[in-house]
Design a protein that fits this description.
- The protein is mainly β and 382 residues long.
- It is 4% helix and 40% strand.
- The protein is built from three helices and 26 strands.
- The strands form seven sheets. It has a five-stranded mixed β-sheet, with no helix packed on it.
- A hairpin with a 4-residue loop joins strand 10 and strand 11.
- The radius of gyration is 21 Å and the shape is globular.
């Protein structure tokens, strides 16, 4: 099934660009970081409209069941396998478990200060291989592991801190720990018991503000890391960090080699002094594409945000400065995840739209109302 004719929404303060970035597998330009792929980003020609049908077909919609025990406020993070959808919802301070048919199953964990409960809900990870969900509570400094029945399997107390994390066979990767991190490493690897620092990466002169839109992404069982003080997507391999994709913004690339030795004040002055490009966020991978967002910085002016797609196979480049909004009311500005079946997962929030615009949506979800939970929309990559 394909999208009907799209409506075009021009963005004045925030531009959404889709960038198919060029490189050459043989003899491509050398990366400053020895990255496997160098993605040269050029935003000079952006007066075009992106059509999602160019790369994907509308596959299906999944209305998340609206029940009294599961009113989803915001999808801050979503991970899924063939049978389960796990959602981190910071607004409702909950982790929701749905089936891939949209049926509500249960809430994972419970908010509270008692045993087996969490006080803050900072991040979560769905371990698809073992069928468990890890929840990070930064206030109590504990990592909680639940099975899909909601039973607590493990509670790991730690002296480390973090905003977001990733779990691999080698332990927990944390970005960024303000505790037990004397070298101000932006990324650290700690052991499974979370009582020992295995290795640290990207030390800075002093602690920098942490971006909540950066951190980790995964594809095909492999974890990747990115953060604002670099223009590189790194792969986490064993206990090592290796450059995978370097995003080359040309003359508008921040001088990252100098930033690590700057104070926060010097860094903020630098960022505000010119029209740089960077701030990678919302990175998602598939076999063929790398989807990402980034932004520009201009002193005393608004920040212009961009959305890009790197074609990992053909490396063709195309730039767009308009965001298409479908009659289905799909939010294309944030890609929630890419499934193992290479489906792009976006959302529709009925509560954010006037019902007079529901006509097309009601052809697929007849009983949708303003009180309905979000609806997931899956597009199959061509």
């Amino acid at each position: 099934m394909k999208l009907n004719e799209l409506k075009t929404l021009s963005l004045s303060a925030i531009l959404i660009l889709i960038v198919f970035l060029p490189s050459c597998r043989d003899g491509r330009q050398k990366a400053a970081t020895n990255a496997e792929i160098v993605a040269k980003v050029d935003v000079s020609e952006s007066n075009k409209v992106f059509d999602v049908d160019q790369i994907a077909d509308l596959e299906k919609v999944i209305p998340l069941e609206t029940v009294g025990d599961a009113l989803v406020g915001e999808i801050d993070k979503l991970e899924m396998d063939d049978n389960h959808i796990v959602i981190l919802d910071k607004r409702m301070r909950a982790v929701w478990l749905f089936g891939t048919d949209g049926k509500f199953i249960r809430r994972i964990g419970c908010l509270g200060n008692g045993p087996k409960e969490y006080v803050s809900l900072d991040d979560m990870c769905f371990d698809k291989e073992n069928g468990t969900v890890w929840i990070w509570d930064r206030v109590k400094q504990v990592m909680l592991e639940y099975d899909l029945t909601g039973e607590l399997l493990k509670e790991v107390a730690t002296g480390f801190s973090s905003n977001v994390f990733a779990r691999t066979r080698n332990g927990f990767w944390l970005y960024y720990s303000y505790l037990k991190n004397p070298d101000n490493n932006s990324l650290i690897l700690v052991n499974e018991e979370m009582d020992h620092l295995v290795k640290g990466f990207f030390p800075t002169k002093e602690p920098f503000p942490v971006s909540l839109t950066s951190g980790f992404t995964s594809w095909a069982g492999k974890e990747y890391f990115y953060f604002p003080l670099s223009n590189v997507l790194y792969s986490l391999e064993g206990t090592e960090v290796r450059p995978y994709i370097e995003f080359d913004f040309g003359e508008r690339t921040l001088p990252y080699s100098k930033i690590m030795n700057m104070s926060r004040e010097e860094y903020e002055t630098l960022v505000g002094s010119g029209t740089y490009l960077g701030g990678l966020n919302n990175i998602r991978l598939s076999d063929k594409y790398c989807f990402f967002r980034f932004s520009s910085t201009v002193q005393d002016k608004y920040v212009t945000a961009y959305y890009g797609v790197l074609d990992l196979k053909t490396s063709a480049v195309e730039v767009f400065s308009y965001l298409n909004v479908s009659d289905l009311l799909v939010d294309f500005s944030s890609l929630l995840c890419v499934t193992a079946n290479e489906e792009l997962v976006y959302s529709i929030y009925p509560s954010k739209h006037n019902p007079i615009y529901y006509d097309e949506l009601r052809t697929l979800v007849p009983d949708v109302t303003e009180e309905s939970n979000p609806i997931l929309v899956l597009y199959k990559l061509k």
